[in-house]
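Question: I have long wanted to understand how a fold can be written as C-alpha cells. Here is the record:
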Amino acid sequence: MIPVIVVFAPTACGKTALAEDLFGKSSSFVFKGKAEVISADSQAVYKGLDIGTAKPTKEEQQEIPFHLIDVASPQEQFGLGKFLESADSLCAQIWRRKKIPLVIGGTGFYIRNFLLGSPSTPESRPEIREQIKQKLADLGKENLYAELKIVDPISAKKININDEYRICRALEIFYSCGKPLSSFSLPCELRKQYKFCTLILNRSREELYKRIDLRVEKMFEAGLAHEVEVLKKSGLTKDSPAMKAIGYSEFFIEGLSLEQIKEKIKFNSHRYAKKQYTFMRGIPEACIVDADDKEKIKQIISSFLSSVLL
C-alpha cells in the first residue's frame, strides 16, 4: 500500500502555509522535504487563473513540489475522472521517488472520491460508450445533459453541464444496465491500495468567513478584475469551464459594480465553504483538528510517517 497524507480544508484555511511548514525546504519539522503536494483544487488546474484561485506562488512552489497546478486550458473541462486518474498516477510516481504524496485541497468532492472511490457500477460496454461519444460529437453536451436529466435527474443535479466525462459515464451506465447511476451507492470504506492519514482542518464559521472576506479583499488589491479582463480578451466567456468558478463567474453578471461583484464573491465563497464540509462528513478514520493547532497536526502526521517509513 502507498502511504498518503490527505488534508482537507475550505478556502482561506491556510493549507498551502501548512504544507510549507511541514515539508518545505525551510521547515524545522523532522520530516521536511519528505513530501510532494497533489493539489485537490478543481480550479487551480487552470492556466491563467492565478489570483482568484489563490494559487501557490512560484516561491511557494519552490519550497515544496506542487502537482496538478496549471495543467489544463481554461477552455478544457477538468472533472473528477481526470482528477482521480491524475492523482493515482502521481501517488505512484511520488512514492517511487521515496517521497510521501500529500493530497491537499478544498474540493471536498475530489477528496471524498479519492479516499472512498467511485460507486461500484457495471463494467463498461465499449459499443455503448462509442455510441454515446458519437452522440456527443453530433449533438453536443447540452443535448446529452438534457437526456441525462430525463433518465437520471438525481445524477444530473450533481453533474456540471460542462463535465462531459461524467455526463457520458452516467448515460453509459444507464444504457448498459437500465439503472441510473444514482441508484448505485457510494463506497463507505477507504480504498485498499492506499494507507491514509486524513486530516480535516476545522475553523469556526465566524473565523472562516472573516478569513475568506480578507482573502477576497486581497485578491481585488492584487488585480483580480484585471486578470478577468485579460482572460475575457483571450476569448473566454461565461460558458468556458474555468469561468464557472467562484471569483470569476461573478464578473459575468450584468449590471453589477466592482464592489457588488466583490460582495457576491464573498457570499458565494461562504456558501461554498459550508458545502465542502458536508462532502467530508463520515469519512472513516479522519481526524478533525483545529486548523491552528500545529502541534497536534504535526503529532498526528509524525506518528503516521514513523509507522510507514520504518
In short: Strands lie at 2-8, 35-39, 66-67, 100-105, 194-202, 287-290. The chain is about 50% helix and 10% strand. The mean pLDDT is 92. The CA atoms of residues 34 and 123 lie 38 Å apart.
